[in-house]
Amino acid sequence: MEEQPPQKPSKGYGKRPLWQWVLIYVVVAIIVYGLIYLLFIHKSGSTAGGGYNY
C-alpha cells in the first residue's frame, strides 16, 4: 500500500478571492452606515415630513 503524505491542517478561513473581501467590506459598511444614520435621526428628532426648510 502506498502511504499518503501528511495533510496540512486546514484553517477555517483560508485565502479568499478579492471579490469576497470587497463584498464583505460593502456589507459591513452598509451596516455601520445604517446604524450611524439611525442614531443621527434618533438624536436629531426629525419632523414627520422629514424635509428641510430652506
Short overview:
This protein has 54 residues and is mainly α. The chain has one helix at 18-44.
Please give a structural write-up.
The chain has 54 residues and is mostly helical. The chain has one helix at residues 18-44. It is built from 1 helix and no strands.
Rounded to an integer, what's the Rg over CA atoms? 24 Å
Approximate helicity band: 40-55%
Would you report the number of β strands? 0
Mean pLDDT across all residues, rounded?
76
Largest sheet: none
Structural class: mainly alpha
Q: Roughly what fraction of the amino acids lie in strands?
A: under 5%
Measured between the Cα atoms of the first and last residue, the distance is: 84 Å
Shape: rod-shaped
Encode the helix/strand succession as letters: H
Number of helices: 1
